[in-house]
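Table 4 source record.
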Amino acid sequence: MTKIELFGLFADEIAAAISPYGLEKYRGRQIAEWLYQKFVRNFDDMTNLARKKREVLAENFMLGQVELQASQQAVNGQTDKFLLALGDGLAVETVLMRHNYGNSVCVSSQVGCGMGCIFCASTINGLIRNLTAGEMLAQVLFCGQRLGDAGRPNSIVIMGSGEPLANYDQVLRFIRLCHEDYCLNMSFRSFTLSTAGLVPGIDRLAEEGLPVTLAISLHAPNDALRSRIMPINDRYPLAAVLAAADRYANRTGRRVTYEYTLIAGMNDSDEQARELAAVMRGRLANVNLIPVNAVAECGVSRPDAGKMEQFLNVLRARQVNATIRREMGGDIKAACGQLRHSVLSGDDPGCN
């Protein structure tokens, strides 16, 4: 008999699943609280349920979880990267970041990635499969356990491996589940979703009416260069992506973040900064400049600090709201896909 997975269900769905087995529907919320607030790993720990009921649950249901496969911690102790094994043996990366204003978790939405961006380790081995909402939530709860008495996750960025809008239904389910009071009780404003620019998904997200922060991976100020860096641009060109982002900003009132990964000799010139400033003119937007993380197979390198500051200054001189992202895990392969790729390729990732 195949057991029914409960982890990742809403309380009313748990109630509907357990009622044919003789458990009262109100137990659905109790079980949800055990799963999501206390992150229990077996039914025996659900001590406010009678032993007989726990036995029925164990016989007919399962609690899919994640197991730590590898981990690294930045020298400054502020950032941890975890490679978490899923129930089918595949693994995904999750990053825990400790800021002075709270704790943030960066979750993966897919195993691997099919976007093909030339600088990203996630895409080296291609897309394997989508994650479920439960598998995304398990990443957050695992990080919550690691924090212990130090606090709890305060914000979630869906910015790890994978393209969230290519796994739209499960990603939105994950966000809504985290919002429930029996789960993490997180405000929708605590979420940032990063996309390579899937226009239909951006428009669909805008219609949800949720104040989620949208981050667009831009990486180039024109179509020719963006298609070279991001093949998805051939399907959704720059003008279409920008128009969709504008619609999102107008619909939600939320400022859009544009991520621009700086790659030495490719997209970091003063001319390209001026071109980017022209693209951003009049938009409700922030530009987040990101020094590329070197990945040997990708053959890219970052500009020096002076070059990045110069690019930033060109933008600011043209009244573009821009910053250089503060790095929190460059010494631990914290960029998307790096730790997973190290393990898959048999390299020693320096894990503990």
